Amino acid sequence: MDVKTFSVPPVIPADRVTLRPLQRSDQGLLELYAGDARVANGTRSIPHPLPPGTGEAFITRHLAEKRQEDVWAMDGTAASLGELVGVISLKRLDDAPDHSEIGYWVAPVFWHTGLASEAVAALLAANPQGCRTIFAQVFQDNPYSARVLTGAGFEYLGDAEAFSVSRDASVPTWTYLKKI
């Protein structure tokens, strides 16, 4: 995909978290949480163990004006949860400018608290990229993320598989779609 110039992602409020653009001060918590094998194994792109400089490179890439993905920190400061409790993103798809793919992870200490559901609902309501269609894909051994998606109105499309860097293997996935 051609990387295009985009404005800074907007701040999006939710109940207990605020979705805000990443900032340099997020690096420590980002590396702490993303460096956890449980988080890395739930994603396609986070390696485990996390190599030095990965957090800084991730933040730099997503602060750049030219990018194909908007990334927000889930900031729980207002609810006394911490400055960064997870990450959520929308990645523009090559074939259609009004189609994106959502991705997210929450730090294990905050699992099963509803924060992912709040963040997904807030991002969908704000629709900052003006999407008509949003896709999602979760590993089949992560039914909790699947529940977040179905709870947000995503429809199941089918089974597939995706490569997980941390697992160094292709992993069965469920694919979802949400029309906005």
Summarize this structure as a short list of keywords or feature phrases:
180 residues, alpha+beta, Aminopeptidase, two-stranded antiparallel ribbon, 5 helices
Description:
The chain is globular, with a radius of gyration of 15 Å. It has helices at 27-34, 37-40, 54-63, 115-126, 143-151, and strands spanning 4-5, 12-13, 18-21, 66-67, 69-75, 86-93, 96-106, 133-139, 155-164, 169-179. The strands form two sheets. It has an eight-stranded mixed sheet, covered by helices on one side. The chain has a two-stranded antiparallel ribbon with strand order 1-4. It has 180 residues and is of the alpha+beta class. It has one domain (4-135): Gcn5-related N-acetyltransferase (GNAT) (Aminopeptidase), CATH 3.40.630. Helix 1 (27-34) packs across helix 3 (54-63). The longest helix is centred in the C-terminal third of the chain and has 12 residues, at 115-126. It is 24% helix and 36% strand.
